[in-house]
């Protein structure tokens, strides 16, 4: 290659590098000056991209999405394999409330560059706003795996987004003798027998409906995301046979708390009940980062109240004549008990019991993270904020 050809090419490459640097620095005036010095008909792919980027994401008073698409699409035609151009087009289409086109651009980018962090994010954002939630969360999970430790804000933000679909929500909680498995249709007969066991329900939950319709409804709810239903339901199994029920209800991640329920229709050794409760406490405090568990005990169940206090809960109140037993029509007191995560992990006796019954000592979870998201609406909010987080981590 002769010097007469080399020099213009080198100059052009330097200009592209300079223009890219100005865009990354969001030095909008310098970008505008650079573009104003070039005749519109002489803009190359990078120049068209810069012009479109400025019109789409530059200062608010200069934005014009209609014109931006013109330049961005020209850039894409001139360099159809440029991932940055495709991702930017995807984002611009989202800004224009055209998620289907955004998804189309992001999909093209993902096909050209699998394993690219920002393509995975673009794909997740576009899929979410196309209401393809599972596909979106899968893309965000990949983005989380691809995010380097040098971008801590982005990594934590992506983890908060994928929190609702994390594997631990469905994984069994395994002890030495028992396991907690998510309630499923295969447990229908056992659930029905529990609901229609008046003595069991009297101590477990007085007000659960035992009708076939209610049981079918609850089985369907059990399969939905816990952050949507605000509860997670397990069956306690021993030797693969159901022996009890366990739940976290009124799950409130915004305040990092939930109510715990554990019950067995047939009498079990205290160690079994203790193991099941420890498994739930470990899940609540270690896996999903709750700060407080609440346990309500009916006033005529003094044995359960003693066991609850033995498990590290503190009685926080006694609600006198608080509920009416639907069967006997008698009024019952209600004990209000609470256990904080700090108390749980600092309780040496409980940790020894956990080590003996579970085969491990529970580790503290990230309570701060759980408060970042309280429901599916918050996931949308986190996804909307992603571009700001990316900019922060630059």
Largest sheet, order of strands side by side? Answer: 1-2-3-4-5-6-8-7
Distance between the termini: 38 Å
Q: Characterize the largest beta sheet: strand count, sense, and whether it forms a barrel.
A: 8 strands, mixed
Q: Helix and strand succession?
A: HHHHHHHHHEEHHHHEEEHEHEEHHHHH
- Point out poorly predicted stretches: 1-13
Specify the structural class: alpha+beta
User: Helix content range of the residues, please?
Assistant: 40-55%
Morphology call: elongated
Question: What is the C-alpha radius of gyration, as a whole number of Å?
Answer: 28 Å
Secondary structure elements and pairings:
Blueprint: H1 3-24, H2 28-36, H3 45-57, H4 65-78, H5 83-95, H6 99-112, H7 117-129, H8 133-146, H9 152-162, E1 173-174, E2 179-182, H10 188-195, H11 198-204, H12 212-222, H13 226-229, E3 232-238, E4 241-252, E5 257-263, H14 270-287, E6 292-298, H15 302-310, E7 314-324, E8 331-340, H16 341-346, H17 348-357, H18 367-370, H19 376-384, H20 386-392
Parallel strand pairs: 5-6
Antiparallel strand pairs: 1-2, 2-3, 3-4, 4-5, 6-8, 7-8
Helix pairs in contact: 1-3, 2-3, 3-4, 3-5, 4-5, 5-6, 5-7, 6-7, 7-8, 8-9, 9-20, 10-12
Structure write-up:
This protein has 394 residues and is an alpha+beta fold. Helix content is 55%, strand content 15%. It has helices at residues 3-24, 28-36, 45-57, 65-78, 83-95, 99-112, 117-129, 133-146, 152-162, 188-195, 198-204, 212-222, 226-229, 270-287, 302-310, 341-346, 348-357, 367-370, 376-384, 386-392, and strands at residues 173-174, 179-182, 232-238, 241-252, 257-263, 292-298, 314-324, 331-340. The chain has an eight-stranded mixed sheet with strand order 1-2-3-4-5-6-8-7, with helices on both faces. Helix 14 links the parallel strand 5 and strand 6 (292-298). Helix 1 runs parallel beside helix 3, helix 8 packs antiparallel against helix 9 and helix 9 (152-162) runs antiparallel to helix 20 (386-392). Mean pLDDT is 87; it is low at 1-13.
